[in-house]
Amino acid sequence: MASLRIAHTYDFGTFAAMKSLLESEGVTVLEIAIGGHLAIAGADQGYYLQVLPEDRVRARAILRKNDLGKYIFLEDG
Question: pLDDT tier at 61 (50, 70, 90 boundaries)?
């Protein structure tokens, strides 16, 4: 199942709120958490929201509408 990362945060509470919001609107969220222990090695850390490609535009619109646009990636990745 292909998916796209659409948003990122370092805060688990924000991640959980965004995930819950999207799921309440019928968007399937495939989450990825990158552990803090990887940061020691210079790797990325935080929480990513991934959605199915067909939900990308709608998910971004929902996040923007709820003042969560600052967490959205500008491009797919």
Answer: very high
Distance CA 24, CA 10 (A): 22
* Within a domain: 25: yes
- Confirm whether 77 is domain-assigned: no
pLDDT digits (tens, 9 = 90+) for 14-34: 999 999 999 999 999 986 756
Is 21 buried (19+), middle (13-18) or exposed (0-12) by CB count in 10 A? middle
* Helix ranges, 1-77 (H): 12-24, 56-65
Residue 48 within a domain: yes
CA distance 54 to 31: 16
The CATH number of residue 45's host domain is 3.30.70.1530
Which residue range forms the structural domain that includes residue 40?
Answer: 4-71
